Amino acid sequence: MRCSHCEKCCHDTEMQLCKADIARFERRGYEREDFVHRGADGIPRLRNKGEYCFFYDPEGRRCKEYSRRPLGCVIYPVSMRVDGEVVVDDLCPEASSVSREEIESNGRRLRMLLDTIALEMKMHGFHPK
Question: Which of 41, 99, 106, 108 could form a disulfide with 78 if both were Cys (CB 3.0 to 4.6 A apart)?
Answer without folding.
Answer: 106
